[in-house]
Amino acid sequence: QVQFVESGGGLVQPGGSLRLSCTVSGFDFSRYVMGWYRQAPGKQREFVACGPGGGLTDYRDSVKGRFTISVDDAKNTVYLQMNSLKPEDTAVYFCTAGEYRPSYYPIHWGQGTQVTVSS
Prior knowledge:
Elements lengths: L2 E5 L2 E3 L5 E8 L7 E7 L6 E8 L2 E4 L7 E6 L4 E6 L8 E10 L3 E6 L3 E5 L2
Parallel strand pairs: 2-11
Antiparallel strand pairs: 1-3, 3-8, 4-5, 4-9, 5-6, 7-8, 9-10, 9-11
């Protein structure tokens, strides 16, 4: 049974930082490329970051230089370090396990964690 346990979301002021964590079980973590998506109120779900796959990471343009994705294979956990947060980063963030086809394609989804950036 595929399970995702996401944590680290919350309320933060603009310019602040958060680190999201996602620990997975029920599948071979090493076979997938991990990623993050987000969905803001009234908007479509959008890609945020993925990797490392083949040592490479990818980010949407609006978060480049501010967000960093990383994985701990020993803990089956993927992280998203988010710095210099902006109000437009407010969304529900979803952890994903996917693959390149050749672009990133999410196969399994977490339940989401809320991130709110507001003063």
